[in-house]
Amino acid sequence: MVTMKDVAQRAGVSIATVSFLLNDTKPVTAATRARIEQAMLDLGYRRNMVARALASRRTHIIAMAYPALEHRFGMSTSEFFTSAAEAARKDDYHLVLWPVGNDGVELRELLGQGLVDGVVLMEVQLDDPRIDVLQQAGTPFALIGRTTELEGLSHVDIDFDTTVEDAVRHLREHGHHELVLISGDLDDPRFHDYGPWVRTEEAYRRVVASYDLPIRIIPCSDTTQAGKAAAARVLTEYPEATAILVLNEYAALGVVAGLKHTGHDIPRDFSVLSLLTVPETAAMADPELTMMRTPGPELGQLGTQALLRQLEGDDPLPPQLVPAKLCPGATVAGPRAPRSKGGAGRRGARKARS
Amino acid sequence: MVTMKDVAQRAGVSIATVSFLLNDTKPVTAATRARIEQAMLDLGYRRNMVARALASRRTHIIAMAYPALEHRFGMSTSEFFTSAAEAARKDDYHLVLWPVGNDGVELRELLGQGLVDGVVLMEVQLDDPRIDVLQQAGTPFALIGRTTELEGLSHVDIDFDTTVEDAVRHLREHGHHELVLISGDLDDPRFHDYGPWVRTEEAYRRVVASYDLPIRIIPCSDTTQAGKAAAARVLTEYPEATAILVLNEYAALGVVAGLKHTGHDIPRDFSVLSLLTVPETAAMADPELTMMRTPGPELGQLGTQALLRQLEGDDPLPPQLVPAKLCPGATVAGPRAPRSKGGAGRRGARKARS
DNA sequence: ATTGTGCGGTAAACCGCTTAACTGAGGCGT
DNA sequence: ACGCCTCAGTTAAGCGGTTTACCGCACAAT
């Protein structure tokens, strides 16, 4: 392994000078700079991050702590991660994905080792035990998501209010009055406290109330299966509904499938609007989902930036809320003609198979 | 920060003794062991991994190098990663996901820093430049996937031959004679050399030939969109086909959607068998996909083990090939009754919309 | 001529841990 | 009683950088 010493020797300077040049922490004359750079080139020098980390107490590694067990790592998360990693690299940091449990014990383990300078926390719960762990350890961190209590916590998050407002407005503009939200399943202990679900549901209640519409919510977990079941519940419990908002993208796939399966046409019979969705998932539905596109790339980047600001001692980035933007697909249209009367029997419903 | 010195002091021993105890590298009497352990407890000592890494030249970190740009990080990959991470943790290693480019320059960067003890390489190409990089750097590595030339490379991979054999047999047992493979798009430069696609196609040619069936292959990239298009091509180019094997799981979703969209019933009119698929994706189709389940958990674990064996100097794990196992869904049934004659016109085809 | 003083550069003390070489106190065979 | 081995512990030399204190020098101000 070629070390700084080797470089210094070959360039005829002291190793401190090499270090100063490398870190740009003290000026170096053009002549010596050239000699050193040549020496580094000749020798193929690469600075050892471990030694640097030990001496400077900065590893230049930041971790994205992801609860791999509780939350599946799907395409949305993948977006967060890659954009965050890119942002980190631009500032000479490494972003690595670290699978940790939601309870914080593995996180504490990780922090104790002194391996990471900071943490980007994902899938934040409203009252997240991991935050205590981070604060106790004194490790800088940024949240993608928000807790209830966010005094002085640097965070970025989806602007759920705007997102839901825009979504509902879109449906209203298409003439819909009968809406249903297929929300998250807050009874599931894993998600009881899960920010996006709680906040979306809250926003929905608020927005719908402001339109003087009835609040109709069906809980549903984050799978296609569950989405199908939820679709069935819509048909029996709210047959008058003409438009369905779906919080989870995988559930949205199930909702579309479920409705089609029972002989309904999308968007003729029902409009479906998927709330937090990436294009890849939207494309998996037939017809392609109209969606509020999760601002994954923006948030990943902003989250990393917020953390790096702290690490570099710059003035902190103010908390930012980014709404999901409407991306028209083919699952939203005007409401079907109001039924004459009674049951859900409609043209097409005859073909129901299950 | 509480260091080993503090612990040693409090326990009244030298810091070397503490180190020996911690690493179990030299015997320590029960008495001193107890004193040291108590001291560590009292002080809340956590060993500093960075210092350890510098001194021992082992970071106990292994990287899973993932070409995040070229390959989307989907559910399958997520499976590989989490199972590999689990296996690593069991052996006191950390597995982190490192996004690197496919060309090897970022990988070289990473290795130069001395941050990782070894690398698990994913999405291996038949002739992968990253392997040269790893060998030059002298970094131990294991492949999930295979190159063409695999002299002495420790690797694990999918057993494509068995997988395809089992898949074709399954369809044959259901009475199908007219098969099509919707394969990968090897014309795409990003995938020209991509092992799974090349190997699956090869295996298919072989297997189908052994059954004396015609070789019918349609290239298709890894998206739902492309799957829909491929379905259309099947209808026009091979209208006699009754069963379709699909290499990529997202394409499989598109194939099902595309066929249904043009008024065909699955599995009545066409059987669809998705070759390398995870249950989550299979569930997104309606009806649920019959699939060959990607052995992600097994391979992630085996890959990590193979690498750790090298790192620990144990005798190497022999290369292992694991087939994908058949998981019946609802997209395979017997072939439709042979048409009387002519075109693809069938009951239901009237409903075609696009 | 004297005194700052700004600047490119050096020497050396760490950073927290590992590990090879060494020490010293029993235990044992003869 | 002597040497010899074993074994728990200790000493100290790194690992490859960073960083503080210091040094000599040229140039400007006094």
From TrEMBL, chains A, B:
Record keywords:
DNA-binding, Transcription, Transcription regulation
Q: Which Pfam families match?
A: LacI (PF00356), Peripla_BP_3 (PF13377)
Q: Which InterPro entries match?
A: HTH_LacI, LacI/GalR-like_sensor, Lambda_DNA-bd_dom_sf, Peripla_BP_I
Q: Where is this region: Disordered?
A: 314-354
What positions does the domain HTH lacI-type occupy? 2-56
Q: Which SMART domains match?
A: HTH_LACI (SM00354)
Q: What is this protein called?
A: LacI family transcriptional regulator
